[in-house]
User: Fold this.
Amino acid sequence: MKILITGENQKNSLANTFARAFENLGCESVIFDEESLYRQLFPGLKNKYTNRLFWRLFSSLLQKKFLAVAGKEKPDLILVLKGWYFCPKTILKIKKELPRTKIFCFNPDNPFNTWHFGASNSWMIKSIPLYDVYFIWAKLLMADIKKSGVQRVEYLPFGYDQKLHYPVDVSAAERKIYDSDVAFIGSWDEKREKWLNHLLDYDLKIWGSAWKKANKNLQRKWQGKEAVGEEFSKVCNSAKIILNIIRKQNFEYPGRNISSHNMRTFEVPACGGFLLSARTDEAKGFFEEDREAVYFSTPEELKQKIDFYLKNEELRKEIAEAGYKRLSNSSYSYIDRAKKIIEVYESFQK
Assistant:
């Protein structure tokens, strides 16, 4: 079985994670590196406002390249990750030229989140009915996706990649770099800044991008870079508490509470870290509250939980170990997610 995956061909990318997972299951994977190609085609594209105005125009050449690769590879399955660069006509053309090829989409964002540039666009929404199957990470988005006209909607949570997320040994010298009472790993946004403003009096370290946008007090907590790959695990194995602030698109939706989860829900326990996360129904379903992970809903509860668990080292270790054990004994890996995709594909062949 040959699978063509759209995305970014980087070690830590979701496209590469899925490619490794499919190959582990005996499939052949080909990545169409849309992000790198987009940058290669337009190396002078530095102004983000120009990109916002002309991304459709810039995407036209990329779509031609994609059609050519699909025609050459003739995959059994095309897995579109998100689908930002592809207009409905491109999806329809593939279905016409490659009638035996199934086209699935897995969207790691909210497809209806057009209020945040980069999360979704009109092409993505109009293309929803054209996919053979649309996979989404949030159960409460499934009904609206179904209303968009797609034939089949499937729930596919996030997961962890065994090649990227695992406990590591941290040397004494490295602990001086990564150690803290509380660590947050993620990029800046306004909601995260508001939450972290409540923790200025703590030994807090922030790892991620764009924190120059934060106030001066939080900038002092910022370590000046992201923590990815093995460095991510070193933070998880050094900091006493790893804080997970779930983004608005994973937690809220106009008129309702999505109450979902995010990638950190699995990645932190996979690395052996103690997870203190925003409380959601889905997250509690993956990891039992106060036994395998700890949750908060208000700034007051967040600070209470931090104070309590900083004083109870053995209990912290027990919960982190229980979370890792739960993850290891459950179908939370991206290999398990890839199995689900293959099972859905095979259901079309019966």
Remarks:
- The longest strand covers residues 2-7.
- The chain has a mean pLDDT of 92.
- The two ends are 16 Å apart (CA to CA).
- DSSP finds 16 helices and 13 strands in the chain.
